[in-house]
Amino acid sequence: MFHNSLRQYVFVIGLVTMIAGQARAEEEFAIVPAVSLKEEYNDNIHFSQRSKDSSFITAVSPSVSLLQKSERLSTNLSARLDLLYYSSASDLNSTDQNYWGTASYQFTPLFKAGASASYIRDSPVDRILESSGLVINSPREQQDYSLTGKYIMTEKLAGNLTYAYQQINYNSSLLTDIFAHFAYAGVEYDLNKILPLVKVRGDVGFNHADYSTAAVDVSTVDTYSATIGASRSLHELWSISADVGGRVSEYSFLVPRKLDEERWGWIAKMALEYHDDFTTGYLNFFHNLQNITGYAVPTEQTSVTVLLTRKFSSEFSGSLFAGFFLNSAENSGQANQDTNKTTYLISPGLTYALTRNLFFNLAYEYAIVHDRLNDTNSDRNRIFARLTYQYPIPLF
User: Fold this and answer.
1) pTM summary value
2) How much is the pLDDT for 102?
3) How many whole angstroms separate alpha carbon 230 and alpha carbon 232?
4) Residue 7 — pLDDT band, cuts 50, 70, 90?
5) Which of 15, 60, 176, 310 is the most buried (most CB within 10 A)?
């Protein structure tokens, strides 16, 4: 594990050196070292239903980012370590690792391509709570890679292609590893002459996912999907977008006996956004299959999330995040991993800029997960204070 992450770190350093060697003096090019210190109180560190273990958690997080931007090339490479220390559960102490990078290049006025890569090695059970509403009781290693391309065919019509690969591994015989490939193609058309400020789009996609443990292959799922959608700026402050469609999934269960199934479902994504000089707001609705980590098949997820941020002054700002998640998965009796869970989460926070480079953040979060199959609840409160210092260094 260490050698895998070390190789990726060496690759990132090599890429940084290559970019630095090609950058011109007129380009924006900077390195941003940073460090943060976070002190947290968590009243249920295992997110347990019955016996709750509480702990203070100290996190020290050094990081470094490389930012480069020119007329054609834009890159962002980052690395961060999270050193976690639990006051009452030293067996959970760990050094989590995060490496990620993105790059885009404008080859011609009509064609732009991009790539991204990330490697995560982490351990907290609630690491995906805000994105999925679920908790995972095992350390994980996750790798994500993607390639994108966009081509402007006419003044009004553009097309795009995306390929992505995801690999998630666990150090647990009770959870399944995931190896997934994604491919999407879409077109977007500007209806400005007919309907001002309106764009319409259509997408088709394919997803192949293999689920396995260290001992046995568990299942394979192929999903074909198609959506249509539109977006519109209502006026200077508001915008709205919506996509709807359908999917068909071919399930192949491999244990304890081979069984093939075909399942149909629907897809929906809707977003409402608000922006002014002091306030931003996002309201999102989502329904689709998700490769939720640790489960033997994709999870059908429905979520509603709200994010509000408010700038009270040039130094002081606040935020509020709230989310509802419904996750369900049926394994047709092939594996003991059926799930039907509802999650509610709310998290207010405050941020104060002490200086240009020093920031203080205070936040609280409450989450409750209701297991609808077993009719049980597990909840967790946590509050944390974080001090972050960063110092951008222009290179040339």
Assistant:
1) 0.86
2) 97
3) 7
4) very low
5) 176
